[in-house]
Amino acid sequence: MKTFKSLIFTAFILISQLQYAQIKVGGKAGFSLGNLSENSSNLYSKDFESITGYDFGVFTEFSVSDQFAVRLEVLSTRKGGRRDGIQPIPLEGILSSGQDINFLNQLAILSGGTTITDQTPLFANYSNKSELTYLEIPLLGRYSWGNQERFYVEAGPYIGILIKAEQITIGNSTFYADEAGNLPLIIPNPLGGTPFSFPEQTFSERTDVIDNLERTNYGVQFGLGFFRDYDNKHEISFGVRATYGFVPIQKNETFGNNKIGSITFNFSYARIFGKSN
After folding, report:
1. What average pLDDT does the chain have?
2. pTM as predicted
3. What are the φ and ψ backbone dihedral angles of 220, each rounded to 5 degrees?
4. Which of 164, 233, 253, 263 could form a disulfide with 133 if both were Cys (CB 3.0 to 4.6 A apart)?
């Protein structure tokens, strides 16, 4: 955090000394492909796939030379991940649903499993999506080349502040005592006949999980694209950018060690002030 503030301060000190004073101010909008990456085989955080989200905000850009500029942005962006199929159920989720944990423990052992904990959970077949909304502030160096139509590459650090986090689950499923789904829970028949299957449970719920996640992240962004100016007063551009956060998002490592990233595709407009290139 202190390093990022120092970078911004240094950039503005540099800009204030420049005699080449072209400034661009504008807005941008687009969509993102967010992803939760995990290098381990953690039961809770593996196998998440990309989801689509949005990415929009405002920016200001200061030209240092004909080819190099410093760009500061303030963005709202939604990213996350999705997992479908058989997956673990945190113990907290079972308890909050009103299930009798002692009864479920007996059924799990009877069905071939073990005592239920966060390390040895029950499983179910449902859809699970994490939607995370961040306020992101990147500080980028941008190198461009060309004439009226110019290409660019950009890179730099960013800081992200989590402002909303929801877990959205959908589906109906029985409980399983194993990850493969080969041990569905069974209820003994009091008459000694064939045991009963544990009834399906509903997993359609939207849960606020922001207290379980780190509120601040930081990382790097890099991208490329092209832009065109009109009358040295207006500019439109198209670009693609990759973002990668360095901070694992879970507070409790029991539930994973995911790092969050995204690929964004953006359109932007800028008003140009000052000297032309």
Report:
1. 89
2. 0.85
3. -130, 155
4. 164
